[in-house]
Amino acid sequence: MKKIVVAALLAAAVNAQAQDTSATCHEAPPEARALLSALHFREQFATGMAISLPNAIRTEAGKAIGRNRTISDEKRKEIAARIAQKQPRVADGIKAITDNTALMDCVMDQVGKSFLHHFSTAEMQEITTFYASPTGRKVVEKMMLASGEAMASTQRLLAPKVTELAQALERELLAP
């Protein structure tokens, strides 16, 4: 659950920052910073980006290549190999983003401000106390792994249905 909340808030914060590159970052209130620290937000964010983005980029590029009916199978294989060769460069680029202290401070501030929209100061202090406890630290440590396993099994279950839906929609759109 924490991963989902953090991911949603992070997506909103990164999107807002990306849309307004002139945004000035102001330090989030101490309660929000303490909560993000207890959540090991920077580390979780960097790990999540390092794992998910290269895979997502590779997957989406593969889908785009697959949908392009003008590319031969041989050319598809060649492009897929080039994409695979670029993966270390993608990983390096993601690391450069997450290693950018000023940018990550802005992300932290945006996420912290988002927390303030949903939690009172007292609630944030209580949440921080939990995540600073041994059980809370274990949740932070294990949640990404547990969520990843749950997401993978859920995707395996749902992928055939989503594919069926997409194919039905494609057939409908391409029908005369």
Structural notes for this entry:
The protein has 7 helices and no strands. The chain is elongated, with a radius of gyration of 20 Å. The protein is an all-alpha fold. α2 packs across α5 and α2 runs parallel beside α6. It has one domain.
What is the overall silhouette? elongated
Helical element count? 7
Separation, N- and C-terminal Cα atoms: 45 Å
Q: Could you list the spans in which at least 5 consecutive residues all have pLDDT below 50?
A: 1-22
* Count of distinct strands: 0
User: What's the structural domain tally?
Assistant: 1
Q: Tell me the strand percentage band.
A: under 5%
Fraction of residues in H or I helices: over 70%
- Determine the mean pLDDT: 81
Main sheet makeup: none
What class would the helix/strand composition place it in? mainly alpha
The sequence of SSEs as H and E is HHHHHHH
Q: What value does the Rg take, in angstroms?
A: 20 Å
Features of the shown structure:
single chain, 176 residues, mainly alpha, 86% helix, disordered N terminus
Summarize the structure.
By secondary structure, this protein is mostly helical. It has 7 helices and no strands.
Would you spell out the secondary-structure blueprint of this structure?
Elements lengths: L1 H18 L10 H9 L2 H27 L5 H27 L1 H18 L2 H12 L1 H41 L2
Helix pairs in contact: 1-5, 2-5, 2-6, 3-4, 6-7
